[in-house]
Write a structure and sequence with these properties.
4 copies of one chain form a homotetramer. With 338 residues, the first copy, chain A, is α/β, with parallel strands linked by helices. Helices cover 32% and strands 18% of the residues of chain A. Chain A has helices at 11-23, 50-54, 107-120, 144-157, 190-197, 213-225, 253-260, 269-273, 279-288, 315-331, and strands at 2-5, 27-32, 37-42, 59-63, 83-85, 88-90, 96-100, 124-126, 161-165, 179-182, 203-206, 231-235, 265-267, 293-297. In chain A, the strands form 3 sheets. Chain A has an 8-stranded parallel β-barrel, surrounded by 5 helices. The longest helix of chain A is centred in the last third of the chain and has 17 residues, at 315-331. The radius of gyration of chain A is 23 Å and the shape is elongated. The first copy, chain A, starts with a strand and ends in a 7-residue tail after the last helix. At the A-D interface, strand 2 and strand 3 of A face strand 2 and strand 3 of D.
């Protein structure tokens, strides 16, 4: 951490800051310039409250030099984390394809789609039971019943299931769920993150609509600090000034996060674009850029889906997609085993 | 709602769409042009799922014409909503000044600040008990104990209290709280919003970091649809490309929201800027633009505050501020009664 | 175009609007609802000034239904435009790799790099002569002399050259230049665009830092309206709230623009990321998503480059990249002929 | 400037960097930590090319500590700059109201509006002759003839005139113009800025749509580095994810820029919002926050204006506005002398 002092700072205050820092086990190196003085802080600065220092009268600015996350940091954990889900592995050179409908609508629907996507090469089933909808008047999901139906589809197809939690109180219903999804709007629901940290179940952590890489990794850190290290990051598009697409897929997040962290990262091309015609090109881009997997909305009857219709693709389109993914995976040396 | 069909749409599908719309009680008016056909939908389109229509093969685009919110819409509720809190009123031509520390730290601290801000002209006390912090290693608030201490300050000063809830499970602790705050990161925590809709307590609903006006009002609509109409909107800065300030205060939100909705709107100049030197100019701007109030972080000892130090101002600065606000309030015909 | 009228509009004003529209050759279809009246405008609305209509007292909102560009619109020009540059072709199923240094620094430097990138598979040479720099104190390019040196490199290697123009007055120097580049900061320098419309030389039009797809295509339309149809679009990253990367590559721009327009689109992975380590993954993503080409900064000695060092890659890295691109191009059925 | 080195950097390269820095007259102070080494650079770092240092293999990151602008920096020029225009002064505690139509349309129109806004209290006349329009099919302004007509209005009313330049080649026409406006889209037209630096005429420099404070001041620095110090900054709204308003007025820019720089700053409430109903509240906000002036679009017949109609107000509305501004100016201790 680097602390830049204002011109002619009060000497007593500077000394008091130095003592406080040293009491926290931090070494301070001072660089005196004509217009300002720079303090170089060396040691374990992760627990220093940067805002406290910024608030001092003598301080002009504080710049972090070290990342504020530790468990999620590749520097302290150079090997890729591989998250085991049922018989599949996410990360570590594997390509994982997760597919399924936006919402679970009925037993027939979810079982039929589960069979179809399994046959096409999906290795995990997604499906919304609790649905975060912008409008209180839109369909809110089948909730507990939706999770029960996902369980039936899992039993029939053997596909592990991933579904979204929206509140701590729903967690008891997730016993049979293989991967708990945290949606973009809950990425900084810190109470929920802490609760997930106590569980022994993989978490698929979506990036918030306007979350920086660092904030995203800090949310992973919340879960990891609690003891749960099985986290799959998921980029799903960020909010920008462009409104033609629902969100803007930040494809650079893949190599950047792989560099900053050891956690696997997958892409949601369906929500990124909000348009079914863009699912394939964005999937190609993501896998080519090194993504560990994709989570794709597939519906047997998109125009009648109860939500998110415009971005779902049909099973037959998904099948064509998996074939293309297999080829690109090969190019970038990923293992894609149905 | 306006539905734009693709060129040469399948006639059977168009008819099927028309029938479906008519079955929902919607009148459809068709405009046929050389390059496209436009359907004008007239009736109560609020309950139509726009995504379902967008998903149809024959549809190129759908444009809303009517706002998707009803309870929060000024068109259906022309009079200003006035929210009563203790002896004060928020909205309806009043200027409300809410002040207090970022976090409750001790009984002495909160009581002392409460007395100071009351003396300077605050009519409500703020103070964080549950603190949403980006890092799991930062101070997380005094939680239940913090709410208890706020209660003591309320008893001593008579000031109603406003404090933030972070999870449904915390709500039972809020019995003695006068206004429940929903933070920016929870603006789309829909389960929490539904729960607040069932309560009989005013809610201070902060705008999400990257929430549009419409999404913000839809979150208000979630609460109102449950029966709780006492909502105070709070603009606290949005996320933009500019990083010099913590957020960018969207001052236009004041007149825009006043036009779209009948709900009162206040401004948080402390979080908008993240710099104490900007609190006064932004407060002046907000009141001049017609804000119904301000919520300001005031600390008796900013450099030692346990969080958000850089943006807190001292009680004596707050006192000068209230005097300036009184003059500007007068100019824009607001009533500011300490 | 759809015009939404306010509730209870003045009848005389509505009629006057209708007459005006009809005088412009527009057919108007009216849909009367309880809360609003919608006018469906059919005909050639491209020349209607949307702002004039919005300004009327009786109008609540105006929604475009048709794109405001015609020459650049795929609807009116279904075949891909193929831009011929020397012996190469940009678009139409070809993959074009343009490479070279950020700035031309000396004859030795540009000739050496030109030879190296040609040997590795580049089919065009880039190099900055006029350099748009944020700071007046940074190196501003070799200017006319830089263009002369590019000409020497072209003569020796046979590679066509692309370089940026910053002002109309520089155009006479571009006679020997094969593709004139318009930088992101000049995308809406309308006077320059008009001038380029009169030329008979391909233009590489970079997307502005915060330009929407529509604005970008409108800038292409400016050039095309003047008679020059040889435009290559170039996505180079947009400005978002994320500051870890220099810009955010909007990879979805590739399939979206291919759908909206017939113009070829290439990607600049160097400026998108601003980090050399990200050039390869972003190049892979771009080609996999269907880009017609890449424009990459390659430097023989990055740490001593006079500008944009952090994002340049070395010739040997570029060579590895071209091999990977050839494989991905094959997967997505592009022809990459060195 | 602070340079953060990678873990275990090559010693020879570190030494070579140190020598190079010292050869530039920079003092280097080294802080060695367990995980990284920090170099504190002291001296005149404005001319150091930050990108060159970032590009080195041994460097992890570089953080600026000092602002990269000097002439525009309040640290080196503590007194407010006051720009003299005709008999009025911009900055230094004065409130300047500039008003006029979006476009000059005819002699009658510009003279009539000029008289009206003068009578209401404007001290300068604005009017577009060269118009930057997104569409090549929209009205492009009266150009040279527009400037001539502005001159007539100036002669009749005595109001100094401000109008926009779009290209260097137009500058000879600006002899009789009092303030040359650089539009948002040209804020980084560096060749134009350099040309303006050589002139002896005040420049009104609008902030780019997505320009940071620093980039904006760097553009001012371009002009000032050429010798022209009479710059008036103008905030006109930035581009964000919110599309309800045309742009988002960043009202915090006023106190921030006043702190970073000594240049006067005015606000354009018309373009910020793009809606005439928002002009008054945003004007109030701007003056209350300390703006040195306003530039407002006023039209005698908004619905027939040839461009930007929705945001223009009528002269009688402008008159009411000036009265309100006079009161707020008084509150914040600005001198508003018609």
């Amino acid at each position: 951490m680097v602390v830049i002092l204002k011109r002619d700072p009060d000497k007593a205050q500077v000394e008091s800051l130095m003592h406080w820092l040293e009491s926290k086990g931090i070494d301070v190196h001072t660089t005196v310039g004509k217009n300002q003085t720079i303090l170089g802080l060396v040691g374990d600065t992760i627990h220093l409250d940067i805002d406290l220092i910024k608030a001092l009268d003598i301080v002009e600015a504080v710049r972090r030099v070290q990342e504020p996350y530790k468990n999620a940091n590749r520097k302290f954990h150079p090997q890729d984390t591989v998250v085991k889900v049922g018989n599949t592995q996410v990360g570590g050179g594997n390509l994982t394809l997760i597919a399924g409908p936006c919402s679970v609508e009925s037993e027939e629907q979810i079982v039929e789609i589960a069979k179809a996507v399994k046959a096409s090469g999906a290795t995990m089933l997604r499906g919304g039971a609790f649905k975060p909808r912008t409008s209180p008047y839109s369909f809110q999901g089948m909730r507990a019943e939706g999770i029960r139906l996902l369980g039936i589809a899992k039993e029939i197809t053997g596909l592990p299931i991933v579904t979204e939690v929206m509140d701590i109180s729903q967690l008891p219903l997730f016993e049979n769920v293989d991967v708990i999804q945290v949606g973009a709007r809950n990425m900084q629901n810190f109470e929920l993150l802490k609760e997930l940290g106590k569980m022994k179940k993989p978490v698929l952590l979506k990036r918030g609509l306007s979350a920086t890489y660092e904030e995203w990794l800090m949310s992973a850190e919340y879960i990891m600090a609690g003891g749960n290290e099985d986290i799959i990051l998921c980029e799903r598009g960020i909010r920008t000034f462009e409104t033609y697409t629902r969100n803007t897929l930040d494809v650079a997040a893949i190599p950047v996060l792989k560099n900053l962290s050891h956690l696997p990262i997958i892409i949601d091309p369906s929500h990124s674009a909000g348009r079914s015609a863009l699912v394939e090109p964005l999937s190609c881009a993501a896998v080519a850029a090194g993504a560990d997997g994709l989570i794709i909305e597939v519906h047997n009857d998109p125009p009648h889906a109860l939500c998110d219709g415009p971005q779902s693709i049909r099973p037959e389109v998904f099948e064509g997609l998996t074939k293309k993914m297999a080829i690109i995976a090969d190019t970038v040396k990923k293992v894609y085993a149905k």
